[in-house]
Task: structure prediction
Amino acid sequence: MQKKYIVRLSEDERCELCEVIEKLKGSSQKVRRAQILLKADVEGANWTDERIAEAFGCPTKTVENIRQRLVEKGFEETLNGAPRLRPPTEKLLDGEQEARVIPLRLGPPPKGFANWSLRLLSRKVVELGIIDSISHETIRRTLKKMG
Result:
């Protein structure tokens, strides 16, 4: 099958990819993308997508996506990944709210329950008006952080 997106790397790009792989410079995703790009290079190894996918233990769609990203977005974004459009979410509970959740967890559970579950605790926090809505996962992270 004819490939729609052809990978042609310059000598500088090849050197940068080799450096990333040899020194394991960057995240594991970056190293894997570097390996895939080197093997997909028409003027280099020129492996098929199937062979690359098998060699690096990833789906062939991943290889196709990396080829496409190189052609459409450029070398830097392909290697390093796309920048986040928005930063990670801010904390849902401020210090005062956390200070009200922790004693609640340490207190006695509601009647009919032996212990506080995270879901039960999240429902109680909303019921008490500490916050409008909250997931049990946020409660878990808050309690874990507090030790």
Summary: The mean pLDDT is 89. The CA atoms of residues 42 and 104 lie 63 Å apart.
